[in-house]
Design goal:
The chain is mainly α. The protein has two helices and no strands. α1 runs antiparallel to α2. The longest helix is centred in the last third of the chain and has 39 residues, at 48-86.
């Protein structure tokens, strides 16, 4: 499922792939930031609660990455089916 779906859509396929790729990269950066900041906040007892919340946010962001990939695949397959049904 990790393979790219080759769809002869010209420039549109590339744009869709790049948009989802950028979303995935931004999400990965946010995950890293939440966990780094959360870890730093755990060094002091007074900021432990904030650190815990950032760990929870980071964990939720970990779930978002496969959702982005699944959305991309569904989007490309929908376009492929629409295009193929218009060919007849």
């Amino acid at each position: 499922m990790g393979d790219d779906l080759d769809v002869p859509l010209g420039g549109r396929e590339l744009v869709l792939h790049n948009r989802y790729e950028v979303l995935s990269i931004v999400n990965d950066i946010l995950v890293a930031l939440w966990f780094i900041i959360g870890s730093i906040l755990f060094f002091q007892e007074s900021t432990t609660t904030a650190g815990t919340w950032l760990f929870l946010i980071g964990s939720i962001e970990l779930l978002i990455r496969p959702v982005i990939r699944l959305s991309r695949n569904v989007h490309l397959r929908t376009i492929t089916r629409t295009r193929n049904s218009n060919d007849f």
